[in-house]
Amino acid sequence: MENISKVTHIESVRLSDDGTCVVIIDQTQLPNRTEYLELSSAEDIWDAIYTLKVRGAPAIGICAAYGIYCLALQIRETDYDRFLCEFRKKKAYLDSSRPTAVNLSWALNRMERAVLADRSKDVGEILELLKAESLKIHREDIDMCKAISEYGLSLIKDGDGILTHCNAGPLATSRYGTGQGPLFLGKERGMNFRVYADETRPLLRGARLTSYELQKAGIDVTLICDNMASIVMKNGWVQACMVGCDRVAANGDTANKIGTSGVAILAKYYGIPFYVLGPTSTIDMNCKSGEDIHIELREPEEIKEKFYQEPVALKDVKCYNPSFDVTDHSLITAIVTEKGVCYPPYTESLAKLF
Ligand code: MRU
Fold this sequence. Notes:
Elements: H1 4-8, E1 13-15, E2 22-25, E3 36-39, H2 42-50, H3 57-73, H4 80-95, H5 103-116, H6 123-153, E4 161-164, H7 181-188, E5 194-198, H8 205-216, E6 220-224, H9 229-234, E7 240-243, E8 247-249, E9 254-257, H10 260-270, E10 274-277, E11 283-284, H11 301-304, E12 324-327, E13 334-337, E14 340-342, H12 346-351
Parallel strand pairs: 4-5, 4-7, 5-6, 7-10, 8-11, 10-13
Antiparallel strand pairs: 1-2, 2-3, 8-9, 9-12, 13-14
Bound molecules: 5-S-methyl-1-O-phosphono-5-thio-D-ribulose.
């Protein structure tokens, strides 16, 4: 077992020491290799987000904030309007890398507001403002994850069995994480949980990332295939489900990794509380319901080829590969944010947060 703070303080995204590029842990290489990448071109940043080298809604937002700052440093215009025009082109490009997690556009919009705040400033001063804003977005995420973990921990007891889906730990965020944050915080305080980590097909974020983080932190984790969630619930081994989120609509409908809604349906059947944990930056009050959430569709190769020595299906078999699904608000026991725990009706409790 490694020291738990080595896991909770892992920096999956940061600004390089010389402040010119974004440094990320390449999450596609875990758990076998810990490789750091330095991203400085728009194409490299876009590609790192699209190919999931950096992933998890909050981490994507932080990467985009640092990324657009580094790209702004490369703009050669000194005239404000021309600078703004170039900035907006780069912002739109990064924003096109993934559609579902709202944190991407949320962070980029915050960065744009820093440029728009005072048009009388010269470009050098604007760059300073951008740097400060990107660091602030990162610092705020650290604080939010801690607060979410505290609130989440208040919902579970020592010795509980917790089922997780996908990865919403330190790699996907800053420090403790969201969906898995209470487990790390509880461990720090001497509590013991039995965690069942869904492997999370197709790209195995639960197997590669969640079980890796939890085991390294000395937390009792059992990896299960996605189709085993029902049996562990039926056996009475699960007292709560905890997941992260990519976009929460105003009515509480929640987009998270594909398969999350199935876990919520099972939890309802077995009478197990189902908790969604995420920062208020993941709540999109412009989406009335899950109907308004754009679900990313990804390549068939993720189902047929990735992570296997040989293809596991016919090359030309038709595939459907949605990266997320929406869990209906009626299946969610509570939504845990850094500002507190929201219970149904979510149209009222979420609105009160803003
Ligand atoms: O496709 P990913 O790996 O970016 O999807 C990640 C998830 O679905 C997470 O559960 C969510 O972003 C919350 S991360 C704190």
